[in-house]
Structure formats: structure tokens, C-alpha cells
Specification:
The structure holds 2 protein chains of 2 kinds.
Chain A lengths: L1 H8 L4 E6 L4 E9 L5 E8 L11 E6 L4 E5 L7 H14 L1
Antiparallel strand pairs in A: 1-2, 1-5, 2-3, 3-4
Chain B lengths: L13 E6 L4 E9 L5 E10 L7 E10 L4 E7 L1 H6 L16
Antiparallel strand pairs in B: 1-2, 1-5, 2-3, 3-4
The chains are: A alpha+beta, B mainly beta.
Keywords (chain B): Acetylation, mRNA processing, mRNA splicing, Nucleus, Ribonucleoprotein, RNA-binding, Spliceosome
Protein name (chain B): U6 snRNA-associated Sm-like protein LSm8
InterPro entries (chain B): Lsm8 (IPR034103), LSM_dom_sf (IPR010920), PTHR15588 (IPR044642), Sm (IPR047575), Sm_dom_euk/arc (IPR001163)
Chain lengths: 93, 98
């Protein structure tokens, strides 16, 4: 739940999602769900020359299970709030 | 807790699916479920190679199991028609490694 809530805070920000097949997609975070599936808008592939497979795709849905990394904007993290939320979550389990 | 984002907005649209084995399948999304199983109508596979242009294999009406789905992209028909697939060479996509 923590990461789901965290990603909801990041809606509207530019992120780069690196997938487990090494493909990396940059776009604006449109929405996220409980499975951490990600919907991106205005997408462009990071290495377009190497991966022209998604040239005609500008909005996409990425299944949570194939995400390796989500690269965030440097100012996207409020460390204190995250620390508090993590402590609360740890206490709960 | 129901899924907040669905593929609702993509129903009856042409979509480009990237599967876990590195395939690219293009078709019209007719249905989906919580496990991301998809029903794809009028679909074809786009096979990329470095030696020849893109090869399109006609498939028809398919169900793709959610386990195998990586990316579901909304295909912009205008952008797609501007592409010259027969001269597009690229390495095939890598399979997903968990």
C-alpha cells in the first residue's frame, strides 16, 4: 500500500520506467494501481534508434510485473514523509 | 479493492502489445480482465530483424494471457501510417528476465 500511495503522489511527474527486457520508457505518470501497473502519457523510448518498436505509441500501460526500475525526478522525494510512512508500515506488520 | 486504472480507455482501439518473449503484437482491444488477460481482434505480429524490414504475420482473434504481457501501448494510427515498416530494421526485443 505504501508504494501505491507514494506513486499516487507522483502522478503528473515525468518518470522513466526501465523494464525487465532492458527497454526504458520516459513519460508523464498518468496513473498507478494496486499492482503498481503504470500508465504513462506522452511516451518516448529512451534509445529510440535501438528500439523503434514503440515509435507510434504515445500512451501506454505497463504491467507492474515487468518493471525493473522507476527513475524519479530528484525533487520527487520527500524523504521525511517517506521515512515516517515506512516506520508506520513496519510497525503495522 | 478494484483496480483503479483499467484498460477501459483502450477498448476498441488499436493497440501494440509487447509480450514477455519479446514479441510485438498489434490489434484491436476487445476485452481485458484484472489479470491483464487480453482479447485482441484483427491482430498481427510485427517481426523485427536487422537484415530485412518489418514482417507482418496475420493472426486473427487472439487471447493473450496476462502473465505474458509487458506493455500495452495505444497505437497512434497517424504516426503509424507515416512509418515505412518495410525499410525499418532493428534488433528484436529481448525477452523479459525476472
Amino acid at each position: 500500500m505504501l508504494f501505491f500511495s507514494y506513486f499516487k503522489e507522483l502522478v503528473g511527474k515525468e518518470v522513466t520506467v526501465e523494464l525487465k527486457n532492458d527497454l526504458a520508457i520516459t513519460g508523464t505518470l498518468h496513473s498507478v494501481d494496486q499492482y503498481l501497473n503504470i500508465k504513462l502519457e506522452n511516451t518516448r523510448v529512451v534509445d529510440e534508434a535501438k528500439y523503434p518498436h514503440m515509435l507510434s505509441v504515445k500512451n501506454c500501460f505497463i504491467r507492474g510485473s515487468v518493471v525493473r526500475y522507476v527513475q524519479l525526478p530528484p525533487d520527487g522525494v520527500d524523504v521525511d514523509i517517506l521515512h515516517d510512512a515506512t516506520r508506520r508500515e513496519a510497525r503495522g506488520t | 479493492m478494484a483496480s483503479d486504472i483499467g484498460l477501459d480507455s483502450l477498448i476498441d482501439q488499436t493497440i501494440s502489445v509487447i509480450t514477455n518473449d519479446g514479441r510485438n503484437i498489434v490489434g484491436v482491444l476487445r476485452g481485458f480482465d484484472q489479470a491483464t488477460n487480453l482479447i485482441l481482434d484483427e491482430c498481427h505480429e510485427r517481426v523485427y530483424s536487422t537484415k530485412a524490414g518489418v514482417e507482418q504475420l496475420v493472426l486473427g482473434l487472439y487471447i493473450i494471457r496476462g502473465d505474458n504481457i509487458g506493455v500495452v501501448g495505444e497505437l497512434d494510427e497517424e504516426l503509424d501510417s507515416n512509418l515505412n515498416l518495410s525499410s525499418l530494421c532493428a534488433h528484436p526485443l529481448k525477452p523479459v528476465v525476472h
